[in-house]
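2.7 Reproducibility. Because tokenized structures are sensitive to small changes in the input, we list the exact sequence used for medium-chain acyl-CoA ligase, including any N-terminal residues retained from the expression construct. No trimming or masking was applied before prediction.
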Amino acid sequence: MGPSREDSGNCFALRVANALVAGCGLTRQDVVIIILPKVPEWWFLHLACIRADIRSSAGTMLLRSKDIHHRLKLSKAKCIITTPDMVPHVDQVADDCEDLRTKIVVGDISETSPGWENYGQLVDKASLDFECANTKSTDPMMIFFTSGTTGAPKMAEHSHSSYGLGHILTARCNRNTLILLFNLRLKFNLVVHICVY
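Resulting structure tokens (single pass, no recycling of outputs):
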């Protein structure tokens, strides 16, 4: 028997989607910037954004105020979600970002700063009943920012189809590399095994 309806990851993502839409007032095609390490919340938030047709933009924990400001202004993000450690960097620039309406912190309730919502509280209050948005393959889904090596980082938007196609291309290109590495590892293990015995 699989997980109950309340325990499945898909259903939890629906609860998170409800927290973003009903709890934070986000609507279709709004932008949410997510600056989190690879924690479960990161995955649930991205799934929730897909379900609600909210464009998500992931950012590294290495971003600082100037980088966050640039991303908030360029994307016209309505919401930012991050950790307590990143709150001071966001607060330094938030007043200059007129589109930013909601700031959510992923952490203990005691780590929630004034003017910030707590992720856990929002999700706990949210319902499991959520009707997923009906999207087209051409609808925008995610926003990435370039590295910014030759100037300020630029936005690169992916649709529901282009994001998946990008993974197929990456898998094809890396397939030969992975096979080569696997074969080298086998040869190395064989050499080590022969030398030891």
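Confidence is low (pLDDT under 50) at residues 186-197.
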